[in-house]
């Protein structure tokens, strides 16, 4: 029986034809995604689901998806899909990460022009029969400094266009290397310096715990008077109330927003301010972009349903059925090693080396490389997956290399990850024991035997008395339960490390208490996906 796909959002007729040309039965019902009850009732019929943003794939929908094998999102963001529920259900979730990059970048440039020359207000005034030529005094872009927050795929295109306009471009991106910055023609700076230098600021980062509200009153106070801010990335990166206050005071001369903290945005502190340009999330809304992502998602779903090929998967690695039983535990290990280093690293990464020792060196190291690199980069960009991570690493000028060697020690297999930045080098190694569980076996050259927990606390210190007592007492007084802990040291009185397994992430005040003891060189809460 031919696979069956439901297209529940608006996709181009060409994409629908791609399914049919690949021998897949397709139901094209572009309004069905808006009818939750009908979708819930019918989802069990389908092997594949092709969506945009209107269809909400909830845990409840997935519970009824008895035959569903793959969800394809025509676009980047998958906020409308419950990824955890999909993973538990064994449903692959794919996106199309690069199909609308040019369109989104062009919209950011268009918004910059619009706010610089007050085009929407001037247009409305002229349509109203007024001729207020002296009212709309704008500024040139030529010679101005553009502050680029995020220099990934979209950000780098914006930089290219801005340089073509003879702007100066400074960029802040934790993963941007000096070499990649030089290739882009931009100057790499820290965020505070960008805020002080920029005449225009444009954001191109995902929304994470670190980036949410990153442009707030404190950040705005560091900006030049008369700065203009553009956000075509994600709603919630900018505190809209605090930006509105700065716009009213005149410290910020203008803003152009395509995305808002709450969408659909029917109300916002930015609405009805004369120096704000607002559009309804049009970043990807061009004929070309919509066509590109639609065709791409149809090809990807068809290829998976017919051939088992996995492309641009968010929630699973590219592994063949034959490899899966052996490789999957090592994919988890590589991802955990990367996640450890990624959460520890807050500056530009210059290189990543993955060493495979023993039997693992004969496995599908390409998938393992992708898992390790994705683990490193997810700390800064949760939307990174195993497919996009190597591409994004290249874009940021990160040199990725692989080393393989025959068994060199007591373990049949181990993976060692080394990440270099301009000021440091971090190493961590791990293996998979006979129980199939990944374990950390060496951190900073210190041998250790540590399972991977969801919530962990990593500390480094000199090997002196009182460390265990201080950790236990501080956690106990703050009501933080320690489920387990592991210690390691090089030699007596030398460098030592500790890994605590906690029931939940420790509050900031607990970390501050530990810092004030002066006993620890590093204190870092870590979180791992151990599902």
Kindly give the count of domains. Answer: 4
Q: Structural class, please? A: alpha/beta
How would the global form be characterised? globular
Terminal CA distance reads 33 Å
Number of strands: 22
Measured by DSSP, the beta-strand proportion falls in 15-25%
Rg measurement, Å: 25 Å
CATH A-level architecture of the largest domain:
3-Layer(aba) Sandwich
Kindly identify the CATH topology of the largest domain: Rossmann fold
The helix count comes to 17
| Oligomerization status of the protein chains | single chain
Largest sheet: 7 strands, parallel
Low-confidence stretches: none
What distinguishing features does this structure have?
531 residues, Rossmann fold, 60s Ribosomal Protein L30, Chain: A, 4 domains, six-stranded mixed β-sheet
Task: Give structural notes.
With 531 residues, the protein is α/β, with parallel strands linked by helices. The chain has 4 domains: 122 residues, Rossmann fold (3-Layer(aba) Sandwich); 178 residues, Rossmann fold (3-Layer(aba) Sandwich); 135 residues, 2-Layer Sandwich (60s Ribosomal Protein L30, Chain: A), CATH 3.30.1330; 79 residues, ACT domain (Alpha-Beta Plaits, 2-Layer Sandwich). The chain contains 17 helices and 22 strands. The strands form 4 sheets. The protein has a 7-stranded parallel β-sheet with strand order 8-7-6-9-10-11-12, with helices on both faces. A 6-stranded mixed β-sheet has the order 14-13-15-16-17-18. Strands 2-1-3-4-5 form a 5-stranded parallel β-sheet. α10 links the parallel β9 and β10. The longest helix has 21 residues. The radius of gyration is 25 Å and the shape is globular. The mean pLDDT is 91.
